[in-house]
Amino acid sequence: MRKSNILITALLLVCSQMMADNIIDEVIWIVGDEAILRSEVEEERIRAQYEGHQIQGDPYCYIPEQLAVQKLFLHQAELDSVMVSESTVSHQVDMRMDYYISQIGSKEKMEEYFRKPASEIREEMMSAVRNQMTIQQMQSKLTEHIKPTPAEIRRYYGTLPADSIPVIPAHVEVQVLSFEPIVPQEETDRIKSQLREFTERVTSGKADFSMLARLYSEDTESAKRGGELGFVGKGQLVSEFADVAFNLNDPKRVSRIVQTEYGYHIIQLIEKKGDRINCRHILLRPRISATDKIRSLEKLDSIRGLIVDSAKITFEQAVIMYSEDKNTAMNAGLMTNQMTGSTQFEFQDLPSDVAKQVYTMQEGEVSKPFIMMDPMKNKEVCAIVKLKSKTDVHKANLVDDFQTIKGMLEAKLAGDYIHDWILKKQKEVYVHIDDKWKGCEFEYPGWVHE
User: Fold this and answer.
1) 3-state helix, strand, coil in the chain (%, to 5)
2) How many helices (H) and strands (E) does the chain have?
3) Does residue 37 contact residue 28 with C-beta atoms inside 8 Å?
4) What is the pLDDT of residue 141?
5) Is 53 exposed, middle or buried (0-12, 13-18, 19+ CB in 10 A)?
6) Predicted local confidence at residue 51, as pLDDT
7) Residue 147: which residues within 8 A CB-CB, separation 6 or more?
8) Distance between CA atoms of 363 and 383, rounded to whole angstroms?
9) Rounded Cα gap, residues 336 and 354, in angstroms
10) Which residues in the chain show pLDDT less than 70?
């Protein structure tokens, strides 16, 4: 999310709180022993308006009912002793708080936007995240028995009207072999010399680390914050960086030069908090000349020749021997879609440089060498790709898209089960609605049964 969006959301919450402060609050619903306040409904309505969420019908009917449904799940979770890990909730909240602080600029600015101390913001966020995770876990428990058989999936597919069968977009599976252009030693020496100079200036008091990070660091996002990364766990950092950062103890000292897949860094400790750390860093990347890139492309062209022309090795063998992409090297070069977790990509989901190559390729074809931007490292690499498979746009069928159809049926069965469960639960839980809030066409009839 962009910083501007974060600020809008923050300001929205401030506005909603101000509005809530200016109305006479009142209890409008009671579900079990939980109250729904008018101020809660107002806050949800304003939040939805500013975030562009469409509300179905009258917001003063829809929002209270949605809040009531949530309380039904929370009530059942209490009866079934469904609990979420407090450490998991705390970790999620810490990440959100750190993200807000990093995007807004500081803890003080965050408190100003929310018009609350950080401790109160965190407490409210803990409650919201805990409820959200509890509801998700409760819904999963209620529907865990839903496991349609292959015969049921086939029958379901047979009942679908023609216009309800989804169209499956064209998708491909792509294998990649890539490595970084060779960096001349003199360029490495230049980078290290510049970082040593930064260290000397900070240590001698001639310059501030955060100022140097803003001016020179090539990690553009953290550079905006003076190189600050925010609180992170060790597992969130690449190992070479983490090993050095977590061994720092003196905020006045600067680390040794650290080489990672992203380039060369120096690090300064800000604060340690349990098993998490906040630090600054300056990143410099070697500059690769056009001549260096050409040499690497020529090397890659020779590798392609071994695969395509002489058939001395397969693409998969070449990946094991030459590829530096650790995310794909142990999987025969097969790229993974980070959004879905599968190996299938729609063309628009591929890195643009790769999409340009494979768009006109045939299955089994290997591209010529090209330069692409590695999206994980944010640096240029030399690559060849092989189009492993290609499926044209088509209507879903049981042969090619069984898992998609299975997912559709599971979602339908789960939705039907949850709907019926809510209708049943309404009769078991005490519900009171203020007379002024009863005149609604609710999605789930049966709220009024006093």
Assistant:
1) 50, 15, 35
2) 15, 12
3) yes
4) 95
5) exposed
6) 66
7) 410
8) 18
9) 13
10) 1-24, 50-51, 449-450
- pLDDT tens, position by position, 347-405: 999 999 999 999 999 999 999 999 998 877 778 899 999 999 999 999 999 998 999 99
Under 8 Å CB-to-CB from 279, ≥6 apart: which residues?
Answer: 228, 229, 245, 248, 267, 268, 269, 270
- What's residue 450's pLDDT? 52
Strand order in the sheet with 34-37: 34-37, 27-31, 431-433
With contact defined as beta carbons under 8 Å apart, do 288 and 183 qualify? yes
- pLDDT tens-digit profile of 145-178? 999 999 999 999 999 999 999 999 999 999 999 9
Residue 347 has what DSSP assignment? G
Q: Report the run of H or E that residue 71 belongs to, with start and end.
A: helix 59-79
Residue 399 CA to residue 391 CA, distance in Å, equals 13
Look up residue 307 and give its two tokens: 């695969």
Q: Are 389 and 363 in contact (CB under 8 A)?
A: yes
- The DSSP code sequence of 271-306 is EEETTEEEEEEEEE-PPPPHHHHHHHHHHHHHHHHH
What gap in Å lies between CA 342 and CA 347, rounded to an integer? Answer: 14
DSSP character string of 144-206: TT----HHHHHHHHHHS-GGGSPEEPPEEEEEEEEEPPPPPHHHHHHHHHHHHHHHHHHHTTS
- Token pair, residue 242, equals 């983490």
Cα–Cα distance measured from residue 296 to residue 382, given in angstroms and rounded to the nearest whole number = 7
Whole-angstrom Cα distance, residue 356 to residue 351? Answer: 9
Tokens of 27: 């209890």
pLDDT given at position 111: 84
